[in-house]
């Protein structure tokens, strides 16, 4: 498998300081450029950008991601939308340990999904401080990323 080009994603946050702390200190992302209303982060070689979005003061502000849909996958309710990175197994374990030590609350605790099946993978889901859902996964054999 060749190295794909880095992806770019921009997402809303309601507190840039909280995003800076979470993505920088908890996830270990190096900070790139920033301005008053956004911050670039290096997420395992990919460019993610936290953009400040002021709350609209609607009832949904009580739950900033009340729009998260959930789909049943391998017996768990997976939040949609979500984003993340496919890591090497050692990186995934180290991240799971770092998140646990930081007291991050998991939506789906780190576990092995599709055990014994094509596409077997380690996965975990959690929210950032703004309520954006993230998934990080790993394969013992990354060539099975798209296995059927």
UniProtKB/TrEMBL annotation:
Pfam family, any one: Glyoxalase
PROSITE patterns referenced in this protein's UniProt entry, alphabetically: VOC
Domain of life: Bacteria
Gene3D superfamilies: 2,3-Dihydroxybiphenyl 1,2-Dioxygenase, domain 1 (3.10.180.10)
InterPro entries, alphabetized: Glyas_Bleomycin-R_OHBP_Dase, Glyas_Fos-R_dOase_dom, VOC_core
Residues of the VOC domain: 5-139
Protein name: VOC domain-containing protein
């Amino acid at each position: 498998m060749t190295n794909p080009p880095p992806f770019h994603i921009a997402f809303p946050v309601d507190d840039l300081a909280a995003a800076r702390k979470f993505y920088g200190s908890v996830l270990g992302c190096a900070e790139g450029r920033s301005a008053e209303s956004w911050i670039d982060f290096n997420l395992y070689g990919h460019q993610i950008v936290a953009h400040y979005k002021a709350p609209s003061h609607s009832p949904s502000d009580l739950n900033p991601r009340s729009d998260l849909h959930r789909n049943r996958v391998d017996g768990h309710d997976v939040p949609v939308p979500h984003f993340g990175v496919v890591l090497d197994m050692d990186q995934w374990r180290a991240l799971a340990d770092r998140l646990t030590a930081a007291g991050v609350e998991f939506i789906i605790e780190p576990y092995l999904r599709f055990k014994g099946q094509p596409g077997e993978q380690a996965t975990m889901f959690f929210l950032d401080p703004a309520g954006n859902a993230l998934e990080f996964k790993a394969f013992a054999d990354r060539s099975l990323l798209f296995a059927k």
